[in-house]
Amino acid sequence: MNYKKKMLILYIILGVLWIVATDYLVLQLDLDTYLNIQKFKGITFVILTGLFIYYALGKKEEVELIKNEKEKLNTLINSMVDFVNFKDGEGRWIESNDFGLKLFQLEGVDYRGKTDAELAHYTDFYYDALNYCMESDEETWKTGTVTRCEEVIPLPNGSEKTFDTIKVPLFKQNNERKGLVVIGRDITQRKQAEQQLKESELKYKSLFKYNPELVFMVDLCGSITDLNPKFEPLTNYQNHEAIGKPIFQYICEQDKERIYQSFRAVVKEKKAKRDHEVHICHKQEKKVVVHFALVPIIIDDNITGIIGYANDITQILETEEKLKTTEKLAVIGELAAGIAHEIRNPLTSLKGFVQMFQSESQKENFIHKIMLDELERINTIVSELLVLSRPQEITFSKKNINDSIKDVLTLLESEMNLHGVTVDLNITEDPLLLDCEPNQLKQLLINIIKNSIEAEATNITIGVLKQKESVTLNIHDNGQGIREERIKRLGEPFYSEKEKGTGLGLTVSFKIVEAHGGKIKYVSEVGKGTLVTITFPLNKKD
């Protein structure tokens, strides 16, 4: 029964009761009193009727206002993209928007007055989800405060929706449960965006942090803003030491201007630039060469910084140098194998004829001596070429290295006396047996000591140190010394600063040390002398 019918019936009942009751009372009185009572009754009836009509109209306005507010509320909640639900203190649904009904497949269901458990029977797919809502509602009632959580709702198509759900409990003054407001905002797209952002950050982190190359970021002034862990092993500087400093500080002087120009070009043209063989400053002054690339960081068509890549090619360049040396040796080997023996045959004849001319000559002729010296030098070069030819089987045997040193010094004694060279020998009397090829060992010692003599040394110190599994031979002279750039090329064939040198002597020496499984190291300073350190294993390993 609607409000209008209720008000009409109430008005009729009250009006009839008033007329009947007042007429009965009036009949009990006299005429004069009757007339006065009738006037009073009429006036009272008009007043009461007016008050009733006023009350009824007020109630009607209030009902209309409530109706309008309800319509506004329904319009508001139905226009929302959020799930909105109002429940009473017992968990029964009072009002829900269309989004919520559609979400839980309750469209067309008379849901008002029913709990989540009762509504669960209307939808098989969301049966468990609706029952879970009762449990989470109960937790909110127990806490007595607003709760917020993320809930994942499955969809029939196999996908999911994530809701940021807020539950607001309402209580009466006596703390009884009055109602529960549930608002669930669909944050699926936000969660997906966050996940994509997280994945992008992880990819960026992997690309930046775990990149096998050095990766760095700089601002438009060239100051370093970020570095990956490859910076420290490449330069031996700590990352925190470099942050905030100009990247050009870590470029060697010879390449600094070139990199600066490339940097300015990237800022101006907004295009990547690549530089080959850039020398990096190492804390321990080691040689480090990299391929350098600068790439602009562009946001909204504006360059905000530069990201750089540095690929260490030091080892590659060293390998290329070794390969070039190997190629030279291969060419030498081919040439030596083909011509060495052919040279020695006429060389022997020439030397024999010169010696015959010398013996038949009535007086000493210096020309004969020069010819014999030159023929002997040619023979020495041919011998060195034969050593550099195809590898030959070497027979190792136990040899006292002290005896080998003494034999070489005896052999070179006259030459050292001629140049005024003294020798300090620091060896033990006990035999020091080394697994070696004796003739090659002697040739190695001769080459090194002759180099000291030719470097105008006046004193040569030779020492032998026995260690647990190796023997170290130190040969130190006070000659002219060797320039640093020359030390880097020691052992390279056909590279020599001597007027008549071929560069093959040290090449042969390096090959002998290598064949014996040893190591050779040169330390020199121009004008102060050279120290050659050779280490051999006591027992040669195959």
Q: Which percent range describes the beta-strand content?
A: 15-25%
Give the spatial strand order of the biggest sheet. Answer: 2-1-5-4-3
Mean pLDDT: 80
Biggest sheet details:
5 strands, antiparallel
N- to C-terminal distance:
112 Å
* Helix share bin: 40-55%
Q: Give the uncertain stretches in residue-range form.
A: none
β-strand number: 17
**Radius of gyration from the CA trace?**
53 Å
Structural class: alpha+beta
Note the total helix count.
Answer: 16
Shape: rod-shaped
Notes on the protein architecture:
The protein has 16 helices and 17 strands. The strands form four sheets. The protein has a five-stranded antiparallel beta sheet with strand order 2-1-5-4-3, with helices on both faces. Strands 7-6-10-9-8 form a five-stranded antiparallel beta sheet. The model has no long low-confidence stretch (mean pLDDT 80). Helix 1 runs antiparallel to helix 2 and helix 10 runs antiparallel to helix 11. The chain is α+β, with helices and mostly antiparallel strands.
Which helices and strands appear, and what pairs or packs with what?
Layout: H1 3-27, H2 31-79, E1 83-88, E2 93-96, H3 98-103, H4 116-119, H5 127-143, E3 147-154, E4 160-171, E5 177-186, H6 188-209, E6 214-218, E7 224-227, H7 231-235, H8 239-242, H9 253-269, E8 273-280, E9 288-299, E10 302-312, H10 314-360, H11 366-387, E11 397-400, H12 401-411, H13 413-418, E12 422-426, E13 433-436, H14 438-454, E14 459-466, E15 470-477, H15 484-487, H16 504-515, E16 519-525, E17 529-537
Parallel strand pairs: 12-14
Antiparallel strand pairs: 1-2, 1-5, 3-4, 4-5, 6-7, 6-10, 8-9, 9-10, 11-13, 14-15, 15-17, 16-17
Helix pairs in contact: 1-2, 10-11, 12-14, 14-16
